[in-house]
What does this fold into?
Amino acid sequence: MFLPGPKRMMSETKQDTGYELGTGGLVFIGLYVLSLLLIGWLGHRAKRANTLEDHYLGGRTFGFGVLFLTLYATQYSGNSFMGFVGKAYRGGFPFLSAVVAMMAVVGGYFLFAPRLHRLSRRRRYVTLGDYVQDRFSLRILTVFIVLLGIFGLGNYVLTNLLALGKLAEVVSGGKVNFNVAVLLLAAVMIAYETMGGMRSVAWTDVTQGVILLLSLGLIAFALFFHLGGPASVATDLEVVRPDIWLPPDLNQNITWLSTALLFFFGISMYPHAIQRIYAARDENTLRRSLQVMAFMPLVTTLILVLLGVMAIAILPGLKGAESDKTTLLMVGRLVEEIPALVIMGPLLVAAVIAATMSTIDSALLAISSMVSNDLYRMVRPDASSAQLTGIGKMTSLVVMFLVVMLTMLLQDQTIWKLLEIKLEILAQVAPAVMLGLQWRRLSARAVLAGVLAGTAVAVTLKLGPSSKPYGIHAGIWGLAANFLVLLLVQLATCRGRTGTPLEDR
It folds into this structure.
């Protein structure tokens, strides 16, 4: 039975400035964060050899449970729990298109993941750069794609550190400064990531994935059984934001499709997700994990978008980056109204921390692997696995330091805006992977020309007066240019160097 009464009482209450955890909740969060160091130490103890495969891929032994939960915890991060909810608050019901967009990501994986996994087992790939160099044998192409991947991952670390800092300020009632929180949590992530590599990261993801699912269950319960669902706040929404009930116009429909395409091509190119494809124990395990992942937007993205939309009527007046705190503000109200949900506060905070840290450590591990394996190894081809692993760990320290400094300078940026920038760039990698696996005669020069043109167009439009000409993202315009130039150069050089099909090597 729906109970709309508490909803009205919540909307009439004085607006919160934040949700503050009590001493017990903060102790719980502290113990949870410290437990991640223990998991990192256990991952270090479980290492079988000081090799790139063991450190960066966990020995390629991930079964269904670990693979699914590490994919899930990595896919849904602080961007989702705070950025998606904030975007839904600002945009209303039209942002339900994000559910379809997140489902499209899994469709992107299915286009190439099974075949790439088979090749990775046979050709011993560790990074995205390994595949690109093996397939096209053009070093400049490999380096450029690796640099795009590092940029995208660095942006990913940045957005999630922003989420962590904002979270800490809110739940501590301002007692923990944004900068202090970012520094301390960054130190914890560096510690367990460098100790145990992918194995530690995946094991922490298992814990974090379970916490995510539990917290989402509590949010869904509160939304539909206490607030009564979106229908219960419909009247207040008509008063506060009548525009969100208007049917979408053509430009908005085009933007929805553009967002779905951006997610399809951009998120599926995450270098840390590709490393999880390599780490699967076998192809069947990978397929089963992706099949289940296809349904997760319905129990994750949908719930978070509804939370943001319902907050419009309950917490009116949030502006810009302030709206990224919507999740915590809503939880604070719900805990006040339903004492039985007192556990929801600490659990949700732990869930956001879990989602955020699982994404940061994965991205950081992928950056270190690409720097050591794809860039440093190019200069020092005789370097041992131990030396390369050491370079990777040092890279993690340097990258984390730089991103932490940048995070402190960009505190007022919305998470969604930074998220889009990353996807505009990563989408340009898609032709090299998706077409490269299917088109045997695709030439390296065509791919290089395409990715250069696509990146140039995406960056130029993103920095211009309108980053979405005709409602289409800069990255999609760039991808169109990417494919067009690739096809033109391929036709002009079809009798040139094509590369030997990997299956024949």
Remarks:
- The chain is about 75% helix and 0% strand.
- Residues 1-15 have pLDDT under 50 and may be disordered.
- The CA atoms of residues 64 and 285 lie 5 Å apart.
- The first helix runs from residue 5 to 12.
